[in-house]
């Protein structure tokens, strides 16, 4: 009976290794080099454009028009939010160049400082910075384009050197150098 259990267990392990072979390399990389190894690999493979140039990730085409840092507060006199450090407002347009609806989520967009520090978008401040539009909450149909502002709350002395824009959480992303 023990022999059969050993054979079954061995077969299960072999099947898992065969089925998950591609993931084994990622797991090994994470164990050896840290949990951000996948992110570093993905950033190296992403397409890169400059400020004002159009670039694509999946079905979405992005164009960053301007980045304004040093903003203390967003919103209006009645409803507003003050930055912990400083707000950086990233003005962009997002076009759906694919053949199916796609959703742009500000939470998937990353900003990086000159030293590689990663900053997340501040969705609450983003809602206040885009009072007239539901840019980040609605699907964008094929052929449509929306414009809006993604907001980052970064340290007072910080600056954004690069953006990484994504259609989905797992897409390669588009790098925008500033």
Q: How is this fold's topology laid out?
A:
Layout: H1 2-19, H2 21-33, H3 37-45, E1 47-50, E2 54-57, E3 60-75, E4 80-96, E5 102-103, E6 110-112, E7 118-120, H4 123-129, E8 139-140, E9 145-154, E10 162-165, E11 174-177
Parallel strand pairs: 1-11
Antiparallel strand pairs: 2-3, 3-4, 4-9, 5-8, 6-7, 6-10, 10-11
Describe the structure.
With 178 residues, this protein is α+β, with helices and mostly antiparallel strands. The chain folds into 2 domains: 2-35; 49-177, Immunoglobulin-like (Sandwich). The protein is 26% helix and 39% strand. It is built from 4 helices and 11 strands. It has helices spanning 2-19, 21-33, 37-45, 123-129; strands spanning 47-50, 54-57, 60-75, 80-96, 102-103, 110-112, 118-120, 139-140, 145-154, 162-165, 174-177. The strands form 3 sheets. It has a 5-stranded mixed sheet with strand order 1-11-10-6-7, with helices on one face. The protein has a 4-stranded antiparallel sheet with strand order 2-3-4-9, covered by helices on one side. It has a two-stranded antiparallel sheet with strand order 5-8.
